[in-house]
Design goal:
A 5-stranded mixed sheet has the order 1-2-3-4-5. The chain has one domain (3-126): Trna Endonuclease, Chain: A, domain 1 (3-Layer(aba) Sandwich). It starts with a strand and ends with a helix. The protein is built from 4 helices and 5 strands, in the order βββαβαβαα. It is α/β, with parallel strands linked by helices. Helix 1 (50-61) runs parallel beside helix 2 and helix 3 runs antiparallel to helix 4 (113-126). GO terms for molecular function: DNA binding; endonuclease activity. It holds the Pfam family Mrr_cat. It comes from Mycobacterium kyorinense.
Length: 128
């Protein structure tokens, strides 16, 4: 995905956005027609629960229809409740990719982060 980081730790009056990317890519796989991608990052010792997914969904919806993709990065993965809730999002007009520490580590060691990102996109689209 050709994107540029536009802001980190962006605070609005009601929320904090960890990373906001502007999607400027021409690749049809990533061209959503919406300019913004919101990235939520958690470097916790435990896996992330469902209420954090709900929070990311809210952040996406609060962008006046200008965000069609979110990415949730959790170094220690996601709870089963998070995964179940994520599976119910297939009918929404946005997509949420998930990444964990093992996947990121393997992608970096293989020097192939692009393939990892593409795989996470496929999982989000078809394997929930």
């Amino acid at each position: 995905m050709d994107a540029i980081a536009t802001e980190t730790n962006l605070r609005t009056t009601t929320e904090e956005l960890d990373i906001v990317l502007q999607n400027v890519g021409q690749d049809p796989r990533w061209s959503t027609g919406k300019p913004w991608v919101i990235v939520e990052c958690k470097n916790w010792s435990n896996s992330v629960g469902r209420h954090h997914l709900d929070s990311l969904e809210s952040k996406i919806r609060n962008r006046s229809g200008q965000c069609a993709m979110g990415v949730f990065v959790s170094w220690n993965g996601f709870t089963p409740d998070f995964e179940r809730a994520l599976g119910h999002l297939v009918r929404e007009p946005y997509i949420i990719l998930t990444m964990d520490g093992n996947g990121i580590t393997n992608a970096v060691q293989a020097c192939d982060f692009a393939s990892y990102l593409e795989n996470r996109y496929r999982v989000a689209c078809f394997h929930r």
